[in-house]
Amino acid sequence: MAKKSMIEREVKRAKLVKQYASKRLALKEIAKNTELPMEQRFKAQLKLASLPRNSSATRLHNRCQLTGRPHAYYRKLKLSRIMLRELASFGQIPGMVKSSW
Description:
By secondary structure, this protein is mainly α. It folds into two domains: 61 residues, Helix Hairpins; 38 residues, no CATH class. 50% of the residues lie in helices and 4% in strands. The chain has three helices and two strands; from the N terminus they run ααββα. Strands 1-2 form a two-stranded antiparallel sheet. The chain is elongated. 6% of the residues are buried. The model has no long low-confidence stretch (mean pLDDT 91).
């Protein structure tokens, strides 16, 4: 199980990403628009840099919903490989059976 502080940190980051998403998108559009004057694009870039770091979507990390494990994460199921195997063994995932030979 992951530390609770790490899980809470990810929740906080997700909240910030959602909060600043529209503002970041608008500033990025201005900064990338080559038809605008250079000064205006530079100001947009500075405003973008002044936003909180954790409001960037690239700072998010996928974690298992049950344990908070950050590695070996299956996006489709939102579980780590360990929990996937455990739940499959107990027959709690429909249509999935643990293989044994």
